[in-house]
Amino acid sequence: MKYGVEQERDWNALTDGAFRDIVRAEVEAHHPSELRYPPRRLRWAENRSWYLRMAAKGWIAPGWPREYGGMGLSPTKLLIFLEEMERWGIARFQDHGILMVGPILMRFGTEAQRRRYLPPILACEEIWCQGYSEPNAGSDLASLRTEARREGDQFVINGQKTWTTLAHDSSHMIVLARTDKTAKKQSGISFLLLDLKTAGITVRPIRDIAGHDEFCEVFFDNVRTPASNLVGELNQGWSVAKSQLGFERIHIGSPKLPEYGLQVLQSVARARGVQGDPLFRDRVAQLQLDVAHLGDIYGHFAAIVGRGEALGPEVSLLKIWATETFQRIADLIIETAGDCGGLAGKVQMGDGRIEVLAPFYKARPTSIYGGSNEIQRNILARQVLNLPG
Amino acid sequence: MSDDMLRMLRDSAADFASLDAVRVRRLRGAARGFERSVWQEMARMGWLGVLIPEDHGGLGLKPGAAAIIAEQLGRALYPEPYSASAVAATLALLHGDNSALKQRMLPQLAEGNVIAALAWQDERGGLDIDQCAVKARVQGKALILDGSSRFVATPEADAFIVAARSAQDLELHWIARDAPGLACEAELRADGSASARLNFTAVVISADTRVASAATAREALQLAIDHAMLAASAELLGLMDCALAMTLDYLRTRVQFGKPIGGNQALQHRAVDMYIQKELTRATLGAAVAAMDNPDCAPQRRSAAASSAKARASQAALAICKEALQMHGAIGYTDEYDLGLYFNRALVLSAWLGNAGAHRSRYATLADAI
After folding, report:
1. Residues A165, A215: contact at Cβ < 8 Å?
2. How far is Cα A204 from Cα A193, in angstroms, rounded to an integer?
3. How far apart, in whole angstroms, are the C-alpha atoms of residue A206 and residue A164?
4. How confident is the prediction for chain A on average, in pLDDT?
5. Complex prediction ipTM
6. DSSP of B307-345
7. Shortest CB distance from B271 goes to which of A284, A285, A381?
8. Domains of chain A as residue ranges with CATH
9. Whole-structure pTM over 0.95, yes or no?
10. Would an 8 Å CB–CB cutoff place B276 in contact with chain A?
11. CA gap A81, A100 in Å, rounded
12. Does A293 reach chain B within 8 Å, measured CB to CB?
């Protein structure tokens, strides 16, 4: 089966330059300009038409193998593809299906699960969210208490998830649930697939301090999902979820957000006329180097992934450096903005309007989600530096 | 240059260069801060000629090879002026336009018989090659040099390659240490080594010993400095890696309040931040070597890559050494403990050829231009 008109093309046979030209021409010609560099996470209603176009072209899953409906790009071509998307300021959509569910099902899923779930992910007909965190299971995720009880050929789920990004835009959820309460922490958890239209599910958006509702809490009251939606072995869900953690850390460690921050910083500096100030120049140079060196070390980890090797616990440093660099940039933006640093939304500065606080708000949760930076430092201290427990 | 060859180079340098703290301490403040016999051994290993073409008695490798050696020398705190002579002075001569002088001197440098040093900074230091305080002028039939140069590593060089401003533009001249009119005054550096302040009073020069005419001097000098910055950054990487390893060992073994101090999360997280700085330096140095080894790399990009690496390495080495000292407590502040040797070398190499602030400024200017 073919997924999109161009999906079966052999992209890797093209030269890097020719491939880059094709991707660039596509985004420049068709990506809606009002959606470039959005200051917040876009809702599905906003970027749906662009991603449906990508799906129709067969470009929605650049990293998936072609046998599963992806573009089958080599690591180098994939990097070019992502670079061109970032260069044009194209925002991600709710792409857990592409980034997590697909790769997990390819590795741990049954043939029936792949046949059922991969095609609608490729068509963007089913949108996935990630049900991991709970009110009492954040950094200590393994202490989660949402339970799934086996009844005949179904699991009955009860409990609550929270900080679920864009659950209100999603049709499906991957759920980590406790299936053996007698086992110790990690060993009693299973990985389930869940249709959010199932009876007994309540999704409630949570308004954040920036005034957006990007994440939600999700309640389960005797929610029934077929036993065939178990991914991997029963009680082995922790290993299934963990298999994607390194990937998540390298994703959060991309220089994309800090680079966006530097752009906003330059606009604010121009509007305030401080670009020539030696002290300001020095601080910007420091941040430029911090971002450039993030790019260098990101390249190092991306090359490991490119060679098909597993990422070690060292990758945690990438998440720490990327997020804290972004935060330092955001701090300098509001400091440079002066009195305008207290104004909400698009602020009149100089001849233009700048959303001064957007990077600042965007930067704050980056050191919390995906395993807080404190947890990442614990991992590095114990597993890389071999410091005592 | 094959990966195998680089690995061999790294392994041989690592085998050869282990920390001899007794020797490092003995040479501090000594009349000559390093040993000619060790320099000769380094020549026999081929290290002094890694950047010198094969037809001039060297190995003809790309500049990245020198960084590999420099990192190992940095780990072992070698006081021999490798980055200053085998990289900076050697490249200045190599990229100048005096082929007779190259023919004569490059083999001497590779064999370790002659040690040269580059003199290009003025009294204030800094990274602007136009801030040169040596002037070349015609007096009667002779060409003479006047002026001064500072921060020259090392005062023990047999010859100096001196940047001088002539009526045309910048030129580079080879001046023997015993040239009449040249006064060399040593300034003690924080690690017990020395740098020189040179004073030139009507020092007679000739076209025969002109390393680079105005046509090539500027680029030869800039290239030599850029690669010396890279080599110094590699030395800093080596020494910060050792200072961090020492500190991690201490955190694992030093017991207070009934447990190893490294079990405290406050110290663990700070140790992680030291590790992150070291890894950033390694990644950035690798990227700079890749950029600078590329023959198509434009001069401005090369300089930006060198500044990027030197800014990070200088900043990271100082940050790691200061934290290492704090975590060791009082023992780290004593001269008998080896951490101080790393600490003092970090001070010297961080400041030499531009500290982090100087390189941030240079990087910002170059980045604007690119």
Report:
1. yes
2. 20
3. 9
4. 93
5. 0.90
6. HHHHHHHHHHHHHHHHHHHHHHGGGGGSTTSTHHHHHHH
7. A381
8. 11-93 (no CATH), 128-236 (2.40.110.10), 253-384 (1.20.140.10)
9. no
10. yes
11. 18
12. yes
